[in-house]
């Protein structure tokens, strides 16, 4: 069975100020070093036991791929080391080493030999490899006539033709169409269930949540978090929004003589809500209310499935925002995002929010989710652009509230995530 132990692992690359500095350092070593070290990874420590499924997340350039190369031995560490037990299959760059002038079958044979398989084993596995890659009619054609998707499918099929003790995947699941991706996930899941250890790098939060039971968050070359995938993803999202993972909740004292302050007595003493780890707060605004309201005006945390509800989000504005936008996100107990949107994505303008005022936003919809418990994440941004991004993130609170969807006795019996409320019609002839 496979295990991974990483202790005090560090990797630095030499940087030279000019193109001649390297030559000068080599020819005249007595003059001293002429380079500086750029540390890509710094003092990484963790252990992965047999059968664990561990995700690795972080922004581009954080050091994720470098870490995998050090673990697989394709790159050597500057400090520390990584120890593995068992057979490793690493999907770092699918198709690397395939030769375009050889046929698909010939490339499979060569790749199998590089994996340590005998000729007899390759012949035995060949029908399954071809069937999984779904390229039967092209297997004896030169690889240069393959589309990039076909090449990736063949490479994945070869790399996973035998269950490894350790499977290392670096963003290699975005291959082929959605049906082939599902096959890839099913194969990897089957490996994990059979006892293989999985180390999986991805920018897809949903994939990490679905596949992994533990997550490593790499930030600027350091191991910033090791634990539950949902919490790691919250921290990662905070970094993507351009804020420190150590962002904390700040409160401000309003002038008692402010007229607008007294006009909103209901919010006067309302405390600022606090989100979970990875939340963002600034001194420019505070979220003071997140609640579901029924048509009759009653606040509810328990909602009947398919019921029409209004989600009310209330913010205390501490500094003038000239283009504020408010949004929310619903996640299930596994942390999977079931729905999210914001006023900018809905093409709505809220107008200027003056300092000392209160911004109350309502989203109304039919709650067609499966009966279960869910969480709400809310955010306030300024100046929207692109497909829902903001130039300023004013407030972003992870899982600031929860709600429960209870069964609707008048609904059909169904399973899944959301009720499509289908209408049935039929004819007989």
Keywords:
429 residues; alpha/beta; Rossmann fold; Coagulation Factor XIII, Chain A, domain 1; six-stranded mixed beta sheet; 10 helices; 19 strands; 34% strand
Largest sheet: 6 strands, mixed
Order of helices and strands: EHEEHEEHHHEHEHEEHHHEEEEEEEEEE
Q: In the residues, how many domains can be counted?
A: 2
- Number of DSSP helical runs: 10
Structural class computed from helices and strand pairing: alpha/beta
> Could you name the CATH class of the largest domain?
Alpha Beta
Distance between the termini: 60 Å
CATH architecture term of the largest domain:
3-Layer(aba) Sandwich
CATH homologous superfamily annotation of the largest domain: P-loop containing nucleotide triphosphate hydrolases
Based on Cα principal axes, name the global outline: globular
- The Cα radius of gyration reads 27 Å
Oligomer: single chain
Q: Order the strands across the largest sheet as they lie in space.
A: 5-6-7-3-8-9
Average residue-wise pLDDT? 85
Q: Classify the beta-strand content into a percent band.
A: 25-35%
Low-pLDDT windows of residues: 243-263
CATH topological fold name of the largest domain: Rossmann fold
Helix content: 10-25%
Work out the number of β strands.
19
């Amino acid at each position: 069975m496979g295990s991974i132990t990483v202790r005090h692992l560090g990797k630095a690359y030499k940087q030279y100020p000019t193109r001649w500095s390297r030559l000068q350092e080599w020819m005249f070593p007595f003059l001293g070093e002429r380079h500086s070290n750029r540390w890509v990874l710094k003092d990484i420590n963790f252990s992965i036991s047999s059968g664990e499924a561990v995700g690795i997340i972080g922004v581009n350039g954080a050091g994720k791929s470098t870490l995998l190369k050090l673990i697989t031995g394709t790159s050597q560490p500057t400090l520390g080391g990584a120890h593995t037990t068992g057979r490793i299959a690493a999907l770092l760059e699918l198709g690397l080493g395939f030769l375009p002038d050889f046929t698909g079958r010939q490339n499979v044979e060569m790749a199998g030999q590089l994996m340590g398989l005998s000729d007899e084993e390759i012949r035995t596995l060949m029908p399954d490899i071809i069937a999984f890659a779904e390229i039967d009619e092209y297997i004896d054609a030169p690889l240069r006539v393959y589309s990039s998707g076909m090449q990736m499918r063949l490479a994945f099929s070869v790399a996973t033709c035998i269950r490894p003790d350790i499977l290392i995947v670096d963003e290699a699941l975005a291959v082929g169409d959605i049906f082939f991706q599902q096959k890839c996930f099913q194969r990897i899941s089957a490996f994990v269930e059979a006892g293989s250890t999985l180390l999986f790098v991805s920018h897809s939060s949903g994939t990490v949540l679905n596949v992994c039971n533990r997550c490593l968050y790499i930030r600027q070359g350091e191991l910033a978090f090791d634990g539950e995938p949902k919490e790691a993803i919250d921290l990662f999202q905070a970094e993507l929004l351009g804020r420190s993972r150590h962002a904390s909740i700040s409160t401000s004292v309003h002038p008692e003589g402010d007229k607008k302050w007294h006009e909103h007595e209901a919010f006067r003493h309302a405390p600022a809500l606090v989100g979970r780890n990875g939340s963002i707060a600034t001194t420019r605004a505070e979220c003071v209310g997140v609640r579901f309201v029924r048509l009759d005006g009653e606040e509810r945390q328990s909602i009947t499935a398919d019921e029409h509800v209004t989600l009310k989000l209330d913010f205390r504005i501490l500094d003038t925002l000239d283009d504020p936008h408010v949004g929310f996100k619903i996640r299930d107990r596994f942390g999977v995002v079931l729905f999210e949107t914001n006023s900018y994505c809905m093409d709505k303008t809220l107008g200027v929010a003056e300092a000392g005022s209160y911004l109350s936003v309502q989203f109304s919809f039919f709650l067609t989710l499966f009966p279960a418990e869910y969480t709400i994440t809310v955010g306030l941004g300024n100046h929207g652009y692109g497909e829902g991004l903001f130039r300023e993130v004013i407030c972003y609170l992870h899982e600031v509230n929860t709600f429960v969807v209870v069964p609707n006795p008048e609904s059909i019996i169904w399973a899944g995530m959301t009720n499509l409320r289908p209408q049935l019609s039929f004819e007989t002839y």
